[in-house]
Amino acid sequence: MNMPVIQLLLAVTCALSGAAARADKADNNKPMNIESDALRYDDLKQTSVFSGRVVLTKGSILIRGGVVAVRQDAQGYQFGVVTAEPGQLAFFRQKREGVDEFIEGEGETIEYDGRADTVKFLKSAQMRRLRGASLADEVTGSVIHYNSTTDVFMVDGGEARGPTDKSRGRVRVVLTPKPQPEAGSTPAPSPPLRSTTTLGGERQ
Hints:
By secondary structure, the protein is mainly β. It is built from one helix and twelve strands. The protein has one domain (3-175): Lipopolysaccharide (LPS) transport protein A like domain (lipopolysaccharide transport protein A fold, Sandwich), CATH 2.60.450.
């Protein structure tokens, strides 16, 4: 990765971080609820495969897809792979802690890692930050990897689909300026951004 790409990544990360709020940590201790048309459960492997109009909720987390495979490790952390219905995109949404903001995204496949607090959107990937009901920022690419603990994400534009495809390696970002405080009001100070030596941040 060359320096201009690194500088762009850091700029976009700071812009999307906003008030440096993170994913709602209360989600970690909430039960996982899933609705689907069918379920295949393997007690030995501690895996469950839900299929048909799957809706998963865990605290503020909402996931929708055609097939959701969930695995739980010995420490109780949950991992999920969401596959979209044919012709559609799988969906993920989670509230950011301490602010009226949500991170949501879509992809043909979504991978959720409860231990690392990461979400990966694969193929036709989109990720958005919403302030209340208003769209604030939007990112699109082939693969988006989002760390909800550090608010750091990486985007891969992907490979060209053919010799005439002009979108090889293209990442598209739309950033909305942060709302300015009203005259006479004193904005609350934002927490300092955490420095890291790795793009993904430290694993918690």
